[in-house]
Design goal:
dTDP-glucose 4,6-dehydratase; binds calcium ion; single chain; about 5% helix; mainly beta; Neuraminidase; PhoX; six-stranded mixed beta sheet; 5 helices; binds MU-OXO-diiron; globular; nine-stranded antiparallel beta sheet
């Protein structure tokens, strides 16, 4: 399957065919090693995983469920070490039918408090220390850096313009500045001063909202808060909007964590807005300020950019402590002529005034979506990862799919009705690609990078490089990463609807091999692919297999796969995979 000398791609790995079975597959010549699984020890004293005796107290010390975002931080801080570092990993949500024997996933009214607390403990984030010996990565046991953040007991600080606002105050926290827990941590990003940014995505699903407080009714409705998918409110009344009307305003933010300081408090950064954050990725602007790009992952929601007021201090990481608290948030309006506008979400500007219920910047941030709609932002096909390419300086926007877009709602940036397969846009700031890109500008140009789907099916309307092979097409792009050469590595979520496993595809972004995607890795049945991230030298590719075995009729007792353990009685376990090249060298070459 090798690309051969005729292929215009710079990637030389042998493509794998589309494959959908019970295990993972990686290109020939590569090792794919399971590094850590749901239930494995993270904190000192964590007991061994026992799938038949799940206890919240144990889960608080063990690796959580459904690993999504992953970041690698070299040790020591500021170095480029690619054989020793910290991994920071999100635990987005839980799959209760695969966690407990006989559990009806919809029966949230009959779960015990221990089950509820277990679910809350299985959410959040982990920090682990990892080391490479020869070809093999392992978790350093009892590391002083190891941490577990959960929805059950971790305290987060709120900072920025909305912190302390009366709409963020609750009976447990009259200051409006301290929140217990985080939920639905999907993707994220890393900053150049060594912190991780993690998103709170579908937080609406955790709040009972059958009877909404009048003051927040419009706000909560826009976010979809109604009947929850989780029964947490039954034992933790703060998740019931009728009993604690402001608690839901304390979720839906981006969070910054310093993994190098195990005593640091994680911070919810309100200046970045409140919506269903997929993630956030940053680039240092030519003037030294930081640009943060982010998506709101829901059908017909928007794309955002935040520009800090102050400059990044790369020499002194501590000086960036408040960098993400001051700056301007913008939302994108795409025009059909290939240009676009970044519209500032600033209180007092245009319609963002008291007449529309915005009395301060805090109100604009708490109801970012409503403010963005009033400004005329472009409704997108579910923005997932949005990431500046650190080599070329352009921004890649992954739009995973939107089957609800009607023919009369099509525009040039969202060009297909009933978009089943998703697409990827590239945004180029004024100043062009490279170091002179002006991320502070209120305009930019954009183009389509690829339209996903099967190019052999004209009805898909797919568009790639014409040399894309039968294995090289993909569906539902979600997370992306860039290697040291600036090539894009695309993880998918939902490709099984198109009959292929979710996995990894890689492509050049410039030159003759642009948009020539090549298939590198396949996940087991029921899984999505998350968190791709490469070490600084490009020789290890980390990724997360999320919700393996989440197929129809698949249960704890009869799962569709028992990946990665394949032992009787052991359910499938979301796990982190480390991929290296046999004999060493850069991934993809
Ligand atoms: Fe959790 Fe937008 O995927
Ligand atoms: Ca995602
Ligand atoms: Ca990413
Ligand atoms: Ca997704």
């Amino acid at each position: 399957h090798a690309a051969g000398s005729a292929s215009p791609s710079t990637l030389t790995f042998a493509e794998i065919p589309h494959i959908l079975d019970a295990t993972t597959h990686v290109a020939e010549g590569y090792n794919a090693q399971v590094l850590i699984r749901w239930g494995d020890p993270v904190l000192p004293g964590a007991p061994a995983f026992d799938p038949n005796a799940l206890k919240a107290a144990d889960q608080l010390k063990q690796f959580g469920y459904n690993n999504d975002f992953l970041g690698y931080f070299p040790l020591e801080r500021g170095s480029n070490t690619s054989t020793h570092g910290l991994l920071t990993i999100n635990h987005e949500y839980v799959d209760r039918k695969l966690m407990w024997s006989g559990q009806d996933p919809d029966a949230i009214d009959t779960q015990t408090k221990e089950q509820i607390d277990y679910e809350m403990a299985a959410h959040g984030h982990s920090v682990i220390e990892v080391k490479k010996d020869g070809d093999t990565w392992s978790v350093v046991p009892d590391s002083r850096y190891a941490r577990r953040f959960s929805a059950l007991e971790t305290e987060f600080t709120l900072s920025g313009p909305a912190a302390g606002h009366k709409r963020l105050r609750t009976s447990a926290d009259p200051t409006g500045t301290k929140v217990i827990g985080t939920v639905n941590n999907c993707a994220g990003g890393v900053t150049p001063w060594g912190t991780v940014l993690i998103a709170e995505e579908n937080f609406d699903r955790y709040f009972m909202g059958e009877s909404l407080p009048a003051a927040e009714e419009q706000n909560y409705k826009r976010l979809g808060i109604k009947k929850p998918d989780y029964g947490w409110y039954r034992f933790h009344p703060r998740f019931d909007t009728a009993r604690e009307p402001n608690e839901a305003n304390r979720f839906g933010w981006m969070i910054e964590i310093d993994p190098y300081d195990p005593t640091s408090t994680p911070i919810k950064r309100t200046a970045l807005g409140r919506f269903k954050h997929e993630g956030a990725n940053v680039i240092v602007n030519h003037d030294g300020r930081l640009a943060v790009y982010a998506g709101d992952d829901e059908r017909f929601e928007f794309l955002y950019k935040f520009l800090t007021k102050n400059k990044v201090d790369l020499a002194n990481p501590a000086n960036n402590k408040h960098l993400l608290d001051e700056g301007t948030l913008y939302v994108a309006r795409f025009k059909d002529d290939g240009t676009m506008a970044w519209l500032p979400l600033v209180h007092g500007h245009g319609p963002l005034t008291a007449a529309n219920g915005f009395n301060s910047q805090a109100d604009v941030l708490i109801e970012t979506r409503r403010a963005a709609t009033l400004l005329g932002a472009t409704p997108m096909d579910r923005p997932e990862d949005v990431e500046p390419n650190p080599v070329t300086g352009s921004i890649f926007v992954v739009l995973t799919n939107n089957t609800k877009r009607k023919p009369d709602q099509v525009d040039a940036a969202n060009p297909r009705p009933a978009n089943e397969h998703g697409h990827i846009l590239e945004i180029i700031p004024p100043g062009g690609k490279g170091a002179q890109a002006r991320h502070e500008a209120e305009t930019a140009t954009w183009m389509i990078f690829l339209l996903a789907g099967n190019p052999a099916k004209p009805e898909d309307g797919a568009r790639y490089h014409p040399a894309t092979t039968e294995a090289g097409w993909l569906s539902c792009p979600d997370n992306i990463a860039f290697d040291p050469k600036g090539r894009i590595w695309i993880a998918t979520d939902g490709a099984t609807k198109a009959g292929i496993a979710d996995g990894i595809w890689a492509s050049d972004v410039e030159g003759d091999g642009r948009a020539l995607t090549r298939h590198f890795f396949a996940t087991p049945t029921g899984a999505e692919m998350c968190g791709p991230f490469l070490t600084p030298d490009g020789t290890t590719f980390f990724c997360c297999v999320q919700h393996p075995g989440d197929d129809k009729d698949s249960t704890f007792d009869k799962p569709s796969t028992r990946w990665p353990d394949f032992k009787d009685g052991m359910p499938p376990r979301p796990s982190v995979v480390a991929i290296t090249r046999k004999g060493g060298g850069e991934i993809g070459q």
